[in-house]
Amino acid sequence: MQFGKAFQYKKWANRELLALGEQQFSQLPERDATFFVRILNHTTVVDSLFISRIQGKPEQHRADNTPETPTIAELRQTMDVHDSWLETFAQTASAEALQRVVTFTFVDGDSGQLSVEEILLHLLTHGSNHRGMASRVLAENGLERPRDTFTRYLHQAEPQRRSGAAR
């Protein structure tokens, strides 16, 4: 699996959604605007928890979201830090490192055990799911949603894929 490319996509998709969300944020009802930020904040908190677990460092959060709701600018900064770490890690991790099993305690107190590879897959699917939820908030309010599919990302990142495609 090409985790490096997958995390490049995750970073790109997060940036696309936040940029579009910020442009239209004032058009969202307060409840939807709060949900938009908090569901994405949840994903970056979960990223942070699992990054700490991979690194064997103390976790920075005691729950799967923060008590306070960050601004979009604060969210973007935190999300970018986590996405950059995950992208670099995924590009450089050895096969052996990906198979390492991490034992941890979830924020609800339950025990868990995943390989690093499983953690990375979880973070990719978890983020995708919640980006979809945030995009849905935009759609429900008649606003533009990002066109953030993996294929679009690949064709933007590697334009030769379009020119070399069979017709």
From TrEMBL:
<feature type="binding site">
    <location>
        <position position="126"/>
    </location>
    <ligand>
        <name>a divalent metal cation</name>
    </ligand>
</feature>
<feature type="binding site">
    <location>
        <position position="42"/>
    </location>
    <ligand>
        <name>a divalent metal cation</name>
    </ligand>
</feature>
<protein>
    <submittedName>
        <fullName>Damage-inducible protein DinB</fullName>
    </submittedName>
</protein>
<dbReference type="InterPro" id="IPR034660">
    <property type="entry name" value="DinB/YfiT-like"/>
</dbReference>
<keyword id="KW-0479">Metal-binding</keyword>
<dbReference type="GO" id="GO:0046872">
    <property type="term" value="F:metal ion binding"/>
</dbReference>
<comment type="similarity">
    <text>Belongs to the DinB family.</text>
</comment>
<dbReference type="InterPro" id="IPR007837">
    <property type="entry name" value="DinB"/>
</dbReference>
<feature type="binding site">
    <location>
        <position position="130"/>
    </location>
    <ligand>
        <name>a divalent metal cation</name>
    </ligand>
</feature>
<dbReference type="Pfam" id="PF05163">
    <property type="entry name" value="DinB"/>
</dbReference>
